[in-house]
Amino acid sequence: MNILIIEDEPQTAKILKEIIKEENPAAKVDAITESISQSVDYLQKAQPDLIFSDIQLADGLSFEIFSRVEIHCPVVFCTAYDQYTLQAFKTNGIEYILKPVKNEDVKAAFEKVEKLKKVFSPGPELLESIQNIFGPKKGYKSSILIRYRESYIPVQVENIGLFVLQNEVVYAYTFDQKKQAVFKTLDEMEASLDPALFFRINRQTLVNRKAVLEIQPYFNRKMVIKTAFQTEEKLVVSRLKVSPFLEWMEQS
After folding, report:
1. For the segment 144-196, what is each residue's pLDDT rounded down to a tens digit?
2. Is the same domain home to 112 and 177?
3. For residue 35, what are the domain limits?
4. Which of 95, 104, 214, 228 has the fewest beta carbons under 10 Å from its own?
5. Which domain CATH number covers 207?
């Protein structure tokens, strides 16, 4: 069994590796990655049999990794926080361990993997079956990295009201009235965001359902959206998108 450890604390990663060897001598820790970018690079080149992953990394939440690269193996999340349980089990998670990690926790995780192997048919279909049960093949972004001064900071997607293309740069407008640049195209953002939460009202704008305060008629059978955000231009729903937008707004 080939294992990847995603952990940005070297001492914690070392201890976890030792516990893994103690509880499953046949297991091999192929690599230890410390960040979202490093983990994505690794997973684009190799697919382990099992992943032990911290959640809060220095450059964001590890869920970002699994929204950017498709994996075919279960994940054991190891974290000091308990508020991410639901999201973990939507991201190929089969076990949720609270730090500090103990031998019995890792042992229980390996036992669960073995039980899953017995439940599903052996062979190449096994890991795909696990993935189909514990999470969708394509995950939508729960957070994005935004440039702030000389650094990047993670921002939860649910806290962003608008993505607007202005002067060939995409800006995110957050609910706390901040405007920050996002170094991705609007097409890339649209493809990575949950369509139940965001709608492309025109070529320049993606709007969060929660940001819409009022919808008013506009000339040429278009509509204009009122939000709590001050933008340089009106948020106009293009004529061809009016009907699907109104239907989308009425969906739960």
Report:
1. 888 777 778 889 999 999 999 988 889 999 998 888 888 889 999 998 999 99
2. no
3. 2-134
4. 214
5. 2.40.50.1020
Tell me: cis bond preceding 48? Omega within 30 of 0 counts. no
Residues 226/228/233/234 CA torsion (nearest 10 deg): 0
Single out the residue in 87, 103, 134 at which a domain terminates.
Answer: 134
Integer Cα distance of 145 and 162 in angstroms:
15
CA distance linking residue 66 with residue 137, whole number of Å: 10
Separation CA 162–CA 213 (nearest Å): 13
Q: Residue 161: phi, psi to the nearest 5?
A: -90, -35
| Residue with tokens 């361990």, as numbered in its chain | 97
Beta-bridge mates of residue 5: 32, 52
Tokens read off for 124:
């190449």
Question: For residue 131, what is the enclosing H or E element?
Answer: helix 125-134
pTM above 0.85, yes or no: no
Nearest in space to 201 (alpha carbons), one of 230, 171, 235: 235
